[in-house]
Amino acid sequence: MSTEPDPAESTRNTGPGTPDGEDGVRATESGGDTPATDGTTGEDTSEDAGESTGDDGTAAEVTAGEGAATPGADQAAAQVTEAQAELAAQKQERERIERRKAEKTGPIAAGTKLSGKAADLLAAVRAVEGGAKPTAGVFDDPEPAPRRPAPEPVRHPRPVAAEAAAAPAPAPDAVEAVRRVLADGGAPESLAPQVAAGLGEGAEEVLREDPWQLLRVAGVRPEQADGFARALLGPECAPDDERRGRAMTVWLLEQAALAGHTALELPALTAALAQRSVPDADAAVQSTLAEGEALAFQDALEEPGAAPAAAEGAQEEDDDEAARPVRVLVGLERYALAEESLADALARIVNSLAKEASPHWEAAASGSAAELIRAVAGHGLVLHTGGEAARAEPAALLTAARAQGLRAVAACHTFDGRHRFAALLAGTAPEGADDSVVTLPGLLSGAEGPGRDADGALALDLLVLLDAPQVDVESAAMVAESLPDGARLVLSGDPAVLWSAGPGRVFGDLLAARVCPQVASRTPDPGPLGELVSGLGIGELNQVEAPGKEIVIVPVRDAGEAVHRTVQLVADSVPRAFGFTPGQTVVITPGHGGAAGTRALNAALKERLNPGPGRFGGFDPGDLVVHSPAPGRTVPGRVEKADAEGLHLACADGPVVVPRERVEQSVKHGWALTAHQAVGSRWPAAVVVLPGDAARTLSRPWVYTAFGRAERHLSVVHGVEQALPRAVAEVPAKPRTTRLPLLLRTLVPPAS
């Protein structure tokens, strides 16, 4: 039975081909506003990082309602019956709409609204925080050239476990002082709390002495900081100002981190500074290094075809190395130290394990997981690669280890991944192994897993880290440093999926460094979907027989039709054909903005599946949402209610209350996601939307990740024509500049 909602339209039961349709020509690449120089523009990075297509500049999530009611109305509604609350909300909504109409022709009340350049800057900041493209031309009268959309968070990637309590709010006097400085420079005074918190004590003096420090506020762009500096400094403001050069250098390094780089090569950085109208780029970099705001490294380059020198012989080859070519890298301290700490910790793990294999491990080594078990028995660090079906092999390893009395735990990227892996252990794990599968954030925070010993190390003998490609360099450093001497670490994952939202390419770097055993699974993913995804991984978009409607192609002509067909599939066709509820179907699209991005699709899906006024900050009870408790993390959930405490969500990790002031930044509607938000989880059905304007943003890892989210059914809303097979065959992952492979080679001899 076809899942196609309209019998008049043809439905194909083969792999995603290239049906007739208009090939969209408008698209933008991810990576923020980093210049198009080598190393400064990276691939999509995030859940929320950098998958925007189109140039939608709105900051708030699009909803079917008119907006949120006033706090007073919310509190009153909480004290009456549901019916009375609904009537009161409708009345309040009508009154609010009338007030908005009246305000359009009335004067703007002083102190309550922003206008002009201040309003533009505030909109730009909120837009970047929401993942949209910032508003251009805030301070400059001439309209700047179009720029790429800023990446959806993560703006400052941090370890996924870093969910500590929020930092204390700055003192009211400090906020007021910063507010006056912002007003003098024509910036929105509402940014004062962010600036005061970001710059710390004495923020007012810092901002007056160096107005370009405004760039440290997430979402502020160089042209906006330049306008602010001109307003404060007057004739003293100049493009060659040393303070401007330093601020631009740090900002570019932050943008590079958003694109996945832990450092930039010096020529790429100076070229990017030149594009930002910094007259003496070399002097700007040197000033930044002198002030300690960045670090520089000289890494020796390996001769083509030459084997890396052993660590022991390095001293004997000092003269030779002095003549070898080097590359100069510049990076922010936090990422440089994280990479060095990770390399040191991995070297310790490799060298601290006894070399002889345990006879107990050898006795347990049988079946399809034997190769992996034998490798782990004799080595402290092991890499395991494979698709979804290959997760059975780490499950067998974990079962064998716990059967021998070892403290063994598996950590997953998402709660859904944890549940799926735990299901593989059902009926096989020893008694008391309920805590053997955790999420990585929960493990590092102590909320899940065995906890830590007296020395602060994780109380583990074996850690199997699943979804390893999703682990950024800071999180990986925290994991490796937390393991005790003698513990074993297994990194397992599918190297074909999208890389981590945060900076680094840990799993790929370890595979390239070849400093430990690597076990490649020979277990294929089953069925038509498995056959399709396996072909994508090697760059082939194959025609696949799908007798059970496992794969369906829905050709569309434009973005409007793509949205319409997507809603039909989720609300009618897929539930009718397979019995799945709309909540069991995920919609994946390349970006947040645009006519068929997550905002537009979520608005249409909400209107069909859970219509309402959106009186709780744009949300209603029953809305599917995604919650981002920390940059780089996405937790699916459902809205339960809202009250004076905030928005109440039922999430995979339990009930969550999001304070009112955090709702706009950390909660988005969740019927439609980007591939970075969806990676690490799977759904019974997936609808992948490929509008014409997304053609240039597609890559093999993106297509592989999106198509691989479906367990039983995949519908492809196809409007990119030949761009899809071309992306699969010709567009690999964008390279990331990192130092980890070289650091590892100097500490660990190559694996035999």
UniProtKB/TrEMBL annotation:
Gene3D superfamilies, alphabetically?
2.30.30.940, P-loop containing nucleotide triphosphate hydrolases
The record's region (Disordered) falls at 1-116, 132-172
Residues forming the ATP-dependent RecD2 DNA helicase-like helix-hairpin-helix domain are 175-262
Listed Low complexity bias regions: 31-43, 57-90, 159-172
Q: Where is the composition biased (Acidic residues)?
A: 44-54
* Matches recorded under CDD domains: SF1_C_RecD
InterPro entries cross-referenced by the UniProt entry:
P-loop_NTPase, RecD2-like_HHH, UvrD-like_helicase_C
Q: Where is the UvrD-like helicase C-terminal domain?
A: 669-717
**Basic and acidic residues compositional bias: what residue ranges?**
91-104, 144-155
For this entry, the protein name equals DNA helicase RecD
